[in-house]
Amino acid sequence: MGEQTVVRKKRSDGRPTKRSKAGASSRQSGRSRNRSHGAGVKKNKSGLFRRIPIWALLTGALLIGLAYVLFFYYFFVGPYSFRWKAMYGDPVYPEGFDVHGIDVSHYQETIDWELVRNANLDTAPVQFVFIKATEGVSILDENFNQNFYESKKNGLIRGVYHFFTPDEDAAAQARFFLKQTHLEPGDLPPVLDVEKIGDLSADQLKKAVKTWLDIVEAKYNVKPIIYTGYKFKLRYLNDPVFNEYPYWIAHYYVEKLTYKGTWHFWQHTDCGKVNGIKGNVDCNIFNGSFQELMQLTIKESDLVSTEWVD
Questions:
Q1: Contact (Cβ atoms closer than 8 angstroms) between residue 91 and residue 270
Q2: How far apart are CA 66 and CA 78, in angstroms?
Q3: Which of these, 219, 187, 213, 190, lies nearest to 293 by C-alpha position?
Q4: CA 296 → CA 156, 157, 212, 250, distances in Å?
Q5: CA-to-CA distance for 140 and 243, rounded, in angstroms?
Q6: Which of 23, 24, 156, 224 is deepest in the core (most CB within 10 A)?
Q7: 241 Cβ partners below 8 Å, 6+ apart?
Q8: Fold for domain 96-303?
Q9: How far is 183 from 133, CA to CA, in rounded Å?
Q10: pTM (2 d.p.)
Q11: For residue 121, what are the β-bridge partners?
Q12: d(CA 245, CA 225)
């Protein structure tokens, strides 16, 4: 397009004038200078790296790599070292505890309870199990009845839990739980699993949780166990009224608990391996001796109640 817009002056005889050789030479020289200048910059850049000794480049690369490894370990591996060990090796169990157990639901599918009865967690046998029973006002865990029956048949101390749905009526949830589950002497107290706040305020959640606990306690005459996460309890259930209930704390991949209050059970990993169970299973420890665990169980006298009507 540019060449078409060039207008050449004509001589008096009508023929175009010749271009100036000097002008062409000047333009050609300018282009040459531009090419030379660009080449010079490139040469200087490559020359900069040539002036750095190879040992310095290698040292810098090693330091960058080391910094990345330390950063990755500090932020991703260190805080979850138990999880990494469980995922890539044998599960790690906190030291200083002798009574171990598991908790299960339909996610574990069909369980071979005869194998579980003889299985070990760390160097201790599986001695207790919490079984999911209900959720909300209408969901019964599909494997609950089989797990509830087979676990006791194979000599395990059993407990059952209800998964609390904050957006459904707490009293209706308690009644549904009591209709579907029938604990016996020697079973652990019923458990309320609280993990979500839903659309409730913190005060509304506390009131709803207390409603469920009161109704269930009236049936069994024992304080139900509260299961919830470490941070969730501190944020939403950090009230003296809930300190009266046994606490089952969920806090994964730490060697020691920093929770300052009293606790009875600690769910320390969801990556456990147990003979008789396919895949992973949650592992727990009891904060006490086996005799103290038995003292926590429901007694025959606890089941005599006139306050609750089915």
A1: no
A2: 16
A3: 187
A4: 15, 11, 20, 19
A5: 29
A6: 224
A7: 206, 210
A8: TIM Barrel (3.20.20)
A9: 11
A10: 0.72
A11: 124
A12: 6
What is the average pLDDT score of the chain? 82
Q: For tokens 């395990």, what's the residue?
A: 156
Q: Give me the active site residues, please.
A: 103, 195
233: nearest Cα among 211, 209, 255, 268:
209
Strand ranges in 61-194 using DSSP code E only, listed in sequence order:
99-104, 120-121, 124-135, 139-140, 157-163, 191-193
Residue 225 class from Cβ within 10 Å (0-12 exposed, 13-18 middle, 19+ buried)?
buried
| Residue 188 contacts residue 220 (beta carbons within 8 Å) | no
Question: Which single residue is written with the structure tokens 């087979």?
Answer: 150
Q: Tell me the C-alpha distance between 190 and 223, whole Å.
A: 8
Question: Is residue 250 scored above 90 in pLDDT?
Answer: yes
Per-residue pLDDT for 205 more than 60? yes
Coil vs helix vs strand at 128: strand
Domain ranges, ordered by start, for the chain: 29-89, 96-303
The pLDDT-based confidence of 49 (bands split at 50, 70, 90) is low
Nearest by Cα to 222 from 244, 205, 201, 203: 244
Hey, what are 71's tokens?
């950063």
